[in-house]
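Entry:
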Amino acid sequence: QELSLARGDGAGISDVGRLNLTFLEPSEILLFDLGMNEPMIWK
């Protein structure tokens, strides 16, 4: 799978974002970067 980021390189993905991975389907993973405060979608 390819990580598609709205902005930035995703190096600052937060623990909360990683925690969310356990609650979402693989095709709907939302990663939240504390540096952006905007959702990044892992398609």
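The longest strand covers residues 29-33.
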